């Protein structure tokens, strides 16, 4: 399958009508249009301390981020603020561990989660977050032995999500941020 430049990938996403920008349709687009990794170079920023979130494109319907993972890095367990999410892997491999929310109390912040299925994603095998059970964690396991870059499409863009701590049986809302925007590090950002 021919890979395409990231600009062409964005054009294709923009061509999907708003009413069809949903689970299934976007996933099918990702399967048929892998991104040529060299075209992502301006958006790739790695940090030894934490994975990085690098904004490539954003409009009212969706945002596209390149998330850069060093070996052993993982996200916190989180949701996507009731928005859809798709992931594709131009570089490396990641594991997505899904969770079911068994209990969640807004007044106390108490929660109880149980792990469900885990899926490995890699080049030519994208993933979409299940809107019915959207809580998950993304991991670049040490056993994968390489850096990874995942492209994440969020529809609609959001700047807050819930983060879960099963060990403490609690959750809270956090603000999200970008490491870089359109190929430029944000002011004050250190890698």
Percent helix range: under 10%
Helix-and-strand structural type = mainly beta
Estimate the mean pLDDT confidence: 96
CATH class: Mainly Beta
Assign an overall shape.
globular
Strand proportion, as a percent range, falls in: 35-45%
* CATH homologous superfamily designation: Jelly Rolls
Distance between the termini: 34 Å
Task: Domain count, please report it.
Answer: 1
Rg on CA atoms, Å: 16 Å
- Tally of contiguous helical segments: 2
Biggest beta sheet summary: 7 strands, mixed
Based on the coordinates given, report the CATH architecture: Sandwich
- CATH fold name, please? Jelly Rolls
Number of extended strands: 13
Say what oligomer this is.
Answer: single chain
Strand/helix succession = HHEEEEEEEEEEEEE
Uncertain segments: none
Strand order of the largest sheet: 7-4-9-2-1-12-13
Can you walk me through this structure?
The chain is mainly β. The protein has a single domain (6-182), classed as Jelly Rolls (Sandwich). 9% of the residues lie in helices and 41% in strands. The protein has 2 helices and 13 strands; from the N terminus they run H-H-E-E-E-E-E-E-E-E-E-E-E-E-E. It has helices at residues 6-15, 25-32, and strands at 52-58, 63-69, 77-78, 84-91, 93-104, 111-122, 127-128, 136-139, 148-155, 160-165, 170-175, 180-181, 184-185. A hairpin with a 6-residue loop joins strand 5 (93-104) and strand 6. The longest helix is centred in the first third of the chain and has 10 residues, at 6-15. The relative contact order is 0.23. The mean pLDDT is 96.
């Amino acid at each position: 399958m021919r890979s395409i430049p990231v600009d062409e990938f964005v054009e294709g996403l923009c061509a999907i009508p708003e009413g069809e920008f949903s689970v299934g349709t976007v996933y099918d687009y990702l399967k048929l249009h892998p991104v040529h990794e060299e075209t992502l170079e301006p958006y790739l920023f790695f940090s030894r301390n934490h994975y990085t979130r690098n904004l490539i494109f954003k409009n009212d319907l969706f945002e596209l981020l390149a998330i850069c993972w060093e070996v052993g890095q993982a996200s916190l367990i989180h949701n996507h603020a009731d928005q859809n999410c798709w992931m594709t892997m131009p570089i490396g491999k990641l594991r997505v561990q899904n969770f079911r929310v068994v209990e969640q109390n807004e007044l106390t912040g108490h929660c109880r989660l149980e792990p469900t299925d885990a899926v490995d994603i890699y080049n030519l095998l994208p993933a979409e977050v299940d809107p019915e059970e959207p809580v998950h964690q993304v991991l670049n396991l040490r056993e994968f032995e390489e850096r990874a870059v995942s492209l994440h499409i969020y529809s609609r863009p959001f700047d807050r999500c819930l983060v879960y701590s099963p060990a403490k049986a609690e959750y809270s809302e956090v603000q999200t941020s970008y490491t870089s925007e359109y190929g430029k590090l944000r002011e004050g950002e250190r890698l």
